[in-house]
Amino acid sequence: MRVMIVSSPHAMSTRDVFTGHLAGLRACLGAENVISYDILPRFNLFHSWTQWIEEKGGVVPRELKANVLASEPVFGAAHFREVDAVYLISPMYFPMSIVDMLHKDGFKVWTYFTECPYEDEFWSRGQASHFDACFVNDRNSLSRFQAYNPHSYYLAHSYNPAVHHPGRMAVNGHEHVIMVGTGFKSRRAFLGEANWEGIDLRLYGTMWTEGDDGWNLKPYVRPRLIENQTTAMIYRGATIGLSMHRTERTFEAEEFIDKGEAYSVGPRTYELAACGLFQISDARPELRDIFEDTVPIYQTPADMERLVRYYLENPQERQELAGRQLEAVKPHTVERRMAELLEYVA
After folding, report:
1. How high is the pLDDT of residue 154?
2. Which residue from 236, 264, 305, 329 could staple onto 273, CB 3.0 to 4.6 Å apart?
3. Rounded to whole angstroms, how far apart are CA atoms 52 and 135?
4. φ and ψ at 176, to 5 degrees?
5. What is the DSSP letter of 148?
6. Rounded Cα distance, 191 and 200, in Å
7. Average pLDDT in the 278-285 region?
8. Confidence check: pLDDT of 311 > 90
9. So what's the pLDDT on residue 27?
10. In-domain check, residue 343
11. Is the domain of 8 the same as that of 135?
12. 217 and 301 belong to one structural domain
């Protein structure tokens, strides 16, 4: 079987999913049978062009939008590379017309929905039925997608051992508490309520300094996107990792998922543990499934602060739990996940 895996037009966490699944598929099928199609450079080029047109007062028709122009060559590439299946990562901006064209020419088309459960209703209703197989990243989202496509499956996140592995330990006297992610408003508000005096907090990613609630966090922010390899290096040099799952349904709207709507953990949870970094987290039921009681869970900003200060002062207990977290995450590699995917579509 030859598969072409197609990236999303994002440079953030979905990018890490793309590179991880690419590595996992190549481990399962052989590098010669897994073709990489990276949409991001084309999307960035066309996005700049359409922005320039709009700034000049022009109207860009739908067929010339950046996501459409970036996606169109996938159809030709599938033919040219003579693949059997096309696998789309995070398909929200991928035109369904191109998916339908691929079907008409005999290609199988699979996809991984990475934004579950935040926008399930919109994407399950609008896109799920177009695919031969849908994979969702939250267990609670499965029934909603199966209502539109019975060939929908839960596929958990994972880590890439070539990138995420233990290394040098944190240097004594330089205890860093870190979080890598998008600074959603709820995250800014939550972290802003804790007292970080005397703690070397470091926040990586975008949106952390936006709005009035971001001002208090400004001293802790490293405002830049970082690729997964750099993230892993930062994890290996830190002391405590903060895992905080998203609650907003979209970037813009102040609408939140319901309590209990999400079940599964995000990719950072796996990556932190695989790098050997002790983590604390907000609550997700899947945490217990994977880690049992080795990941301390906070409910409030005061809980988070208390746990951080406690484990900074108790390095032996912290390191013991980090070792148990590392052991628990070992089976969850990208190769194993892609083996699961291939079993579903066989």
Report:
1. 98
2. 329
3. 36
4. -100, 135
5. T
6. 13
7. 97
8. yes
9. 98
10. no
11. yes
12. yes
If asked whether residues 196 and 140 sit together in one domain, one would say: no
How many CA atoms within 13 Å lie on the side-chain side of 341?
34
Q: How far is CA 252 from CA 65, 104, 180, 207, in A?
A: 20, 36, 20, 12
**Are residue 227 and residue 286 in the same domain, yes or no?**
yes
Sheet with strand 152-154: strands edge to edge: 34-37, 3-6, 85-89, 108-113, 133-136, 152-154
CATH no. for residue 69?
3.40.50.2000
- Extended beta strands in the chain, E state: 3-6, 34-37, 85-89, 108-113, 133-136, 152-154, 176-180, 200-204, 221-222, 240-243, 279-281
Q: SS3 letters for 274-322?
A: HCCCCEEECCCHHHHHHHCCCCCECCCHHHHHHHHHHHHHCHHHHHHHH
- Residue 340: inside a domain: no
pLDDT tens per residue, range 58-88: 888 888 899 999 999 999 999 999 999 999 9
Give the DSSP H or E segment for 340.
helix 334-345
Query: Do both 133 and 211 map to the same domain?
Result: no
Whether residue 196 is contained in a domain is answered as yes
Residue 285 has pLDDT above 90, yes or no: yes
Q: Please name which of 293, 261, 298 lies closest in space to residue 282, comparing C-alpha atoms.
A: 298
- Encoded tokens for 338: 């892609």
Give me the percent of the chain exceeding a pLDDT of 70.
Answer: 96
Note the pLDDT tens digit of each residue in 208-266. 888 776 678 889 998 677 788 899 999 999 999 999 999 998 766 678 899 899 999 99
235 in the same domain as 106: no
337 assigned to some structural domain: no
Q: Which domain holds residue 61?
A: 3-155
Domain total in the chain: 2
Q: Which class for 36: exposed (0-12), middle (13-18), buried (19 or more C-beta within 10 A)?
A: middle
Reported as a single tens digit per residue, the pLDDT across 324-335 is 999 999 999 999
Query: What φ, ψ does residue 143 adopt, rounded to 5°?
Result: -65, -35
Q: Which residue has the tokens 């596929």?
A: 155
What distance lies between CA 255 and its chain's CA centroid? 20
